[in-house]
Amino acid sequence: MKNFIIRTITGVLFVAAIVTCFLNLRAMVLLFALVTGMTIWEFTGLVNERQAVTVNRFIATVAGVYLFFAMAGYNSGLTPSSVFIPYLVSIIYLLVAELYLKAEDPIHDWAYTMMSQLYIALPFSLLNVLAFRYNGHDVVYTYLTPLSVFVFLWINDAGAYICGSLLGRHKLFPRVSPGKSWEGSIGGGLLVVGVAVLLWYLTEKYGVNELGLTAAEWAGLGLVIVVFGTWGDLIESLFKRTLGIKDSGNILPGHGGMLDRFDSTLLAVPAAVVYLYTLTLF
Fold first, then answer.
1. Which member of 75, 141, 159, 172 has the lowest number of beta carbons within 10 Å of its beta carbon?
2. Helix or strand run (H / E) with residue 204
3. Rounded Cα gap, residues 3 and 226, in angstroms
4. Where do the DSSP E strands lie in 78-229?
């Protein structure tokens, strides 16, 4: 009972922090820059416990946070594309440094270092692509699109849990996550589609459908987030099973670590960016 209360309080505070931060541009940038840094620090700490792995946690974390700020500056129109040069220099340094460190297995060091950037830093940075758009005259900040990604993920988790508990019979991916079922995943997906259509209706009614998405396109966005969010969850589960750990950390009482909390986000955000950009091509 005590663990349930702690988990509930942490969950409520987490959702409140995410929702409120998107209502303010500076709060969003600062919070997710912090989240990026904490997640990379957690990831590199876990992989450094593996035999013959020595990732430079400090530089990898600073580089990832810098990439987030650089993406925010570039997508908001505040900085030119040259803002990415320091990040590229840091990546080159991390590669070249292995020539001189005489590590036991530099290939592992390179792989895990680059994974920290591609798996964590880049997806979080792409939130800025969703948050800023050009309206024909100027670049404006919009909270609706990035926030909808999190809302859809939360609704999918809740729907999958409820439907899986009541109807779950067929395991979705027993080798990696025995608790997930096809019934739960389908139920969560259908619930997200319904909420996505409702969101289209409300944004049209109140004139805040800034991307001009149709009901079908909102539903498509919801499905994309469900599918890739589920894969993101499974990928993190496989990562933990490979390391032989239950939780990636304990910074969030009752919810584990940063990777545990943002695992679905790491694939859902890039997928949402690709989906929305694809819509503009046709």
1. 141
2. helix 182-205
3. 28
4. 132-134, 139-141, 171-173, 177-181
Question: Residue 115, Cβ neighbours under 10 Å: how many?
Answer: 17
In tens digits, the chain (282 residues) has pLDDT values of: 566 678 788 888 888 999 999 999 999 999 999 999 999 999 999 999 999 899 999 999 999 999 999 999 999 999 999 999 999 999 999 999 999 998 889 999 999 999 999 999 999 999 999 999 887 778 899 999 999 999 999 999 999 989 988 887 889 888 888 888 899 999 999 999 999 999 999 999 998 888 889 999 999 999 999 999 999 999 999 999 999 998 898 887 777 899 999 999 999 999 999 999 999 865
Half-sphere exposure of residue 99: CA atoms within 13 angstroms, side-chain side: 4
Residue with tokens 């469900």: 226
For 195, what's the count of Cα atoms within 13 Å in the CB-facing half-sphere? 22
Q: Which of 141, 176, 143, 183 is nearest to 162 (CA)?
A: 183
